[in-house]
Amino acid sequence: MIFNSSNFSFCQEILSHQDSAFNKIIITLGVVICALNFLSLWLAYKKFTSKRWRISFKGTPGMILEFSRSCIMIPAVIFLITQIFPIETKHFFGFGDISRIEKSFLNHVYMYALLLFIFGMSYMIVLHFFKGHKQLSELDDKASRSKKNSIEYYRNYKRPYRYYFIYSFNTFILIGITTVSVLSYAFLRRRHMLLFYRNEIIDAINNIQPDSVQDFFVFYKSFIENIICISGQYARLYLLLFLLILFELKAGWITLSHGGGYGTIIGFVLTLVALILTVLVGFFYYESLYNIVSSKLTYLERIDSINSSLVEQFQDRYNSRQIFFQTINRNLAFYLCFIVIFFTAKPFLKRIDEYVKTRIDISE
After folding, report:
1. Is 163 helix (H, G, I), strand (E, B) or coil?
2. For residues 236-255, b (16+ Cβ closer than 10 Å) or e, as one string?
3. Helix-helix angle 59-79:20-42, to 10 degrees
């Protein structure tokens, strides 16, 4: 029995779908968005700013930090969608050949993206055009506060928020929702492919013949390589997320609203939990498959169908502990994640402490 599926590789699939023309389009869009973000910030922080806006969002340093956020986030997203998830990005934008099951996944993701867009746009419009200027005006004492519906009120509180809307839309709607949608589709697609691969292995081991054991080992080895490849891709994804969160906790914090700061704290917790769950789910997913294959090989050894050395070779080379450490050791991003988490812990706890003190002050 020859296992032709052993020729398939996730990493090779990604390399074969690298498209310099498509990448140039994405990079050009990134540059345009970055330029629009700078224009939006310049208008809100410089050209049409106000004293209250400068005090609340730290003036020129705040503008520099906000633009730095764009300069970090946009290249990170470009790397993510062109180097780690290029196939899924093309599919999301309607390029490339798409199978029936992939089309089904995309339809679900499009609905999810539409709901996110409706919710996100509703929140952004309410914040920038109806609620934000009220919160900003309440920070001034009544004596210096401009009267509502006056020109001064518009200039001091409303106008900066209107120009800042472009930056918020680009960052949280255009970039944020698109990235989340691509990642959601990538998760569904790769989960399906891994489950298909797993079923292929179970089918192969259930129908294995004594003369095809070595062919099966080649097939199984290709499966391990794919697991290591996918694990590395998601490790790089988590690394980028932790770096962005570290930036917000260390530097970008002074430009965040109360809700934005709270969201950053929650984001760190959710990302950390997601990383732990990814490792645990991946480990138990592999453990269950390994036990099935190992039990079958042990049974074949017991009835003298295969040599015991082959069973020992499989168990020594492919046991769960070996594969776990092999996956970590072959992906530098995992070690970098641990380092970034370590450096994020202190500012994270500091921000938590600040929130607790704020809540105590409010209650008193």
Report:
1. helix
2. bbbbbbbbbbbbbbebbbeb
3. 170
CA distance 17 to 89: 11
Q: Are 341 and 272 in contact (CB under 8 A)?
A: yes
45, 57 Cβ separation under 8 angstroms = yes
| Amino acid occupying residue 164 | Y
pTM of the shown model: 0.86
Give me the residue spans of the domains in the chain. Answer: 7-185, 208-364
Which residue is it, tokens 């013949």? Answer: 209
Among 195, 219, 190, 217, smallest CA distance to 11 is for: 190
- Give 84's DSSP letter: I
- Tell me the C-alpha distance between 185 and 92, whole Å: 8
Name the amino acid, one letter, at 111.
M
The Cβ of residue 10 has, within 10 Å, a number of other Cβ atoms equal to: 20
Q: In this structure, which long-range contacts are made by residues 164-168, counting pairs with CB atoms below 8 Å and at least 24 apart in sequence?
A: 164/40, 164/41, 164/44, 164/128, 165/40, 165/124, 165/128, 165/129, 166/36, 166/37, 166/39, 166/40, 167/36, 167/37, 167/40, 167/41, 167/44, 167/66, 167/70, 168/124, 168/127, 168/128
Q: What tens digit of pLDDT does each residue of 159-216 get?
A: 999 999 999 999 999 999 999 999 999 999 988 888 888 888 888 888 887 778 888 8
Instruction: Summarize pLDDT for 26-74 with one digit per residue, the tens.
Output: 999 999 999 999 999 999 999 999 888 988 888 889 899 999 999 999 9
What does the pLDDT look like over 97-129, one tens digit per residue? 888 999 999 999 999 999 999 999 999 999 899
According to DSSP, residue 147 is labeled P
Give the whole-angstrom CA distance, residue 243 versus residue 42.
Answer: 26
Cβ count within 10 A of residue 125: 13
